[in-house]
Amino acid sequence: MRFKLADVGMMSDADCWVDLQLPKKDVSLSAGEILLSISYLPAANRLGVVVMKARGLQSDKLKDTIDLSVKLALKHQSTKLKKKQTRRVKHKMNPVWNEMMMLEVPRELLAKSSLELEVLNQAGAGGDMDSMGRCQLGLQAAGMGLQHWKQMLDNPRKQIAMWHPCTPEPTPVPQPKPPLSTSPALVLEGSQSDVHLLRCCRKQ
């Protein structure tokens, strides 16, 4: 609903109701979507993840070969606990996997745990794996990743499926080479213990 402010009497006490619309998605930031179903089994301390299918993957990254898989990583804070990967699906722009993966994770760790998924394409036989996009689920995630994780925690033992937008891999920016140093070499002065301490600090 649209109307001109010039046509509205600012002193009027009349109520005006309008329909709210969802914000438009920024297509330029999307690298396709992946459909996931997750559930948590408290009695078994198991997290079930079903990688179902993907759509809208960027065709310009697929080149001549379509050989798609999904890599999954379970993390607790910054520590990677478990890694799994689906089978590869060839020659399909909208691949279907329907693969379930069971991950053991105690309930008390769920609040600080997260799932990271990455869609990969293998460029030719024995070629490199190109990233098509990735998404994250967890209480530290945002958007659908946060919403999906909360619904899983609120509904134990129930499979909950949602589409997740994939974020494209950022293009690395080449760093300029540092200029050649013309300064004289640094001479360390001091005891042997001072030199040893400096070396230890550099290793940390």
- At the fourth level of CATH, the homologous superfamily of the domain at 29-165 is C2 domain
What oligomeric arrangement do these chains adopt?
Answer: single chain
The portion of residues assigned to helices is 10-25%
The CATH C-level class name of the domain at 29-165: Mainly Beta
Mean pLDDT: 81
N-C termini distance: 60 Å
Query: What overall form do the CA principal axes indicate?
Result: globular
Our estimate of the beta-strand percent is 35-45%
Structural class: mainly beta
Unreliable segments of 5+ consecutive residues: 183-191, 193-204
Q: Main beta sheet, described?
A: 5 strands, antiparallel
CATH topology value of the domain at 29-165:
Immunoglobulin-like
Total number of strands: 9
**If you compute it from the alpha carbons, what radius of gyration comes out, rounded to the nearest whole angstrom?**
25 Å
SSE run: EEEEEEEEHEH
Q: Quickly give the CATH architecture of the domain at 29-165.
A: Sandwich
* Number of continuous helical runs: 2
GO molecular function: calcium ion binding; calcium-dependent phospholipid binding; clathrin binding; phosphatidylserine binding; SNARE binding
Protein name: C2 domain-containing protein
Domain C2: 30-164
InterPro entries: C2_dom (IPR000008), C2_domain_sf (IPR035892)
Can you walk through the features of this model?
The protein contains 2 helices and 9 strands. It is mainly beta. It has helices at residues 144-154, 192-203; strands at 33-41, 46-55, 67-76, 79-85, 89-90, 96-104, 113-122, 129-138, 160-165. The chain has a domain at 29-165: C2 domain (Immunoglobulin-like), CATH 2.60.40.150.
